[in-house]
Amino acid sequence: MFGSKLEHKARDPAACDSIGYDMRPQGPAAGFVGRFFLFFVYCFFLSLCHRKLERVGLHCRTGSPSRPLHDGAQNEDKNVSLAMLWAETLVTTGVCFLLAQGYYGVRAARERMERVRQTIITLAYSFIKTTTTDSGIGHGRQELQVLIYECLALLTAYPVALLEQMRGNTCEPAITRYCQDTSRALKRLRDGDDSVVASQFYRSEPWVIRGRGHHQFATIECFFEVFALQLQLEFTRQTMRTKGPSMTSQHLIYNLRNHFENFVDLGNLDDRRTPIIRENIDMLALAGRECGIFSFLDVAPIAFLWSVHLAGWLIAVYCPVQNCDWLVAWTPEEVEDSASLEFPSLSIMMVMAVLSVLSAMLTTILSEMWKMWDPFGAGTNTHAWTLGIASEIDNMLNEFYEYDTKGLIRKHAYMDPSAYLNDMGCGAGGSSGNRAQTV
């Protein structure tokens, strides 16, 4: 009942009512209906009060007694009609041009976003499946497991931090420390320390968060997905901002490189695989910087956008006024010159609906134009991007729910075989997999 969409999603990660996994944002149906109702009320007001509006110079009736019939008035009407025609033509051209450019920007941004996603998943697989403890000087199994979880947390946090950076959010929460705490919490959860971790990090009401509420994890299956949601809440709630640009995403890449180089130096990674992983880290950093090119805070024709937007709204508002004679064309003759307010007939309401649809369509297209130029805001469902990456990492870590260890093609190289079997719940009868599913 209370709380934001992110908080409700964090409480129940499987629910898709408020936040889904489709990259396309919600359709303009709700906005169109609202604008249609607004313009219909506007047309209703013009039809109801057109006689009173004639006193201030708005002549809706063609043969109105208060309207002088001379050549000057007719020429004035022609000039206004010609000006409106040119204005509508220019606005239509501008909207079409901006929509085309915006659509190209959204498609190009989506390509970079998918490049970031694929590179993150490739790196996550490399850390999960190719690290080893066979070297005599490297990290042990227990220590390496925590470090692998920290690398996965860094990869999960990177798109969230990158997204907020491209939106101009200069908040810099201690994400690297959160990733360290998250890795230790996940290690304890997978070791079966349910009571200690659950009592320390979980609350039944996720919207009542005091201090660091980024560890409210209810299941291992959605561990990193909930972690991504909590990071987004952290960026939203923090009021402290830096004067300069945010460096959070660069800090995450920096820490990821440090962990990777330590793995290489200590022999936890095969030398034959290190060039590929190093190149993927470079590709991830480059793809993240390329995403920033298409953000709304980068180069954009702001003056042109606002000019077309304001001109379009003026046309949408003036369209019922220009055709207000349609709204009074079926007024009965006995009340045509009456000073009383007359309720519009059904025929006039049909005309109102047509004019309202035209104005609502124009303003809805203007709204879509702005969305196209903001691909990391309203142009796409960014939750599907960040949560989709986190969900893939969760699935790889949990072997895509393949709890039958005999059917696994390649086990996690950093985990002890006996601990791996215990985590998968082998030999537990009907409760097989419960340890990996629920905390």
Automatic annotation (TrEMBL):
Domain of life: Eukaryota
Transmembrane segments: 29-49, 293-316, 346-366
Key words of the record: Membrane, Transmembrane, Transmembrane helix
Protein name: Uncharacterized protein
